[in-house]
Amino acid sequence: MNMQVSRRLERFSSAMFFELNQLKQQLRANGTEVIDLGIGSPDLPPPPHVIEALTEAVCDPSVYGYPTSEGSPFFRQAVADWYKKRFDVELDPSTECMALMGSQDGLSHLSLTLVDPGDYVLVPDPGYPIYEVSIHLADGRPYLMPLLETNDFLPDFSKIPPEVAQRAKYMILNYPNNPVTAVAERSFYEQAVSFAKLYDILIVSDIAYSELAFDGFKPISILQIDGAKDVAVEFHSLSKSFNMAGCRIGYAAGNREALQALAVVKSNIDYGVFTAVQKAGAAALTGDPSHTAHMSETYRKRRDVLLDGLKRIGWDIPKPQATMFVWAKIPIPMTSRKFTKELLAQTGVAVVPGVGFGEQGEGYVRIALVQPEEKLQEVVARIEKSGILKKN
Ligand SMILES: Cc1ncc(COP(=O)(O)O)c(C=O)c1O
User: Which PANTHER family does the record cross-reference, listed alphabetically (predicted)?
Assistant: First the structure.
């Protein structure tokens, strides 16, 4: 058969990641131990009480029917309670909280809910790839908001042309940010809410990394800003905060019209999150909050081991205040793609080229802190031995 895939699919292809994966496989086949700091999949386990809740739930025969796509009342209540406890934000669990099969589910389907062909969506560049891909799914037009170091990696709303803002359906913000690791303060969210109200744009705030913060920094929710619920919906994930990436559970909270519309799309596509997984998710959200503090401390130590080590050998990278990543400027004159390939070939250390997150990511690589401290020490040793930082 001469299969003709859709033109849309061409925008999904990622030759670069395919190439890097092949290189990793080749190295492994030749006996190199690859230290993978590429994908941001947590290597740590969920808290024990979450595994216990899941184990107990899967033994309950009543959880095996279809769940509902918007989530069970007990899970939505747990989300509302968590928002109250963590951010002092009041949410109505039945209209302002909704379960998702990971925040990716919400991020990918929201475009089908709000975007007509030709509509603009304002997305950060660099940005987590699904933001832009989901717009193409709905035949919308991404308008890329550059995240520049000179503006603390925040979008500059004054640079968005009014004719674009007038035709934009929503804007994605992601702080603490993947990949650039930047954080946002209250004043930034206040500006964002004013801008959204001026142009009647929904804000989608992705806080997948809100619980991974260091050195006393505590990320806030956009829903803490007065009037934010009129214009904002927030996506949060249990993947990183509770190491439940494989469980596929997250949620949306905030603007009820947006959630209602998303529920219509999702009720035609899926049947929701397995009830046993929702029970585990509720246990995570209502359980002892010291787990996240402990986990952040683990990432903080990893950050320090890696960045202090790299600084010692001549690669000075600013320490992030949050996330499980490091956003590192490439210290030699080489594109991010070439540097990533050279680094992998010469040291067996896998990272992600910044350009994989958008044009503005060129010149950087993203390093995920998903290996124990000893491995990160070895990363430093391998990089030093290779001499790659001295080449130009
Ligand atoms: C910024 C950001 N948003 C959303 C997601 C998706 O997370 P989930 O596992 O909840 O679908 C990720 C995953 O890496 C992410 O980095």
Answer: AMINO ACID AMINOTRANSFERASE (PTHR42832), L-GLUTAMINE--4-(METHYLSULFANYL)-2-OXOBUTANOATE AMINOTRANSFERASE (PTHR42832:SF3)
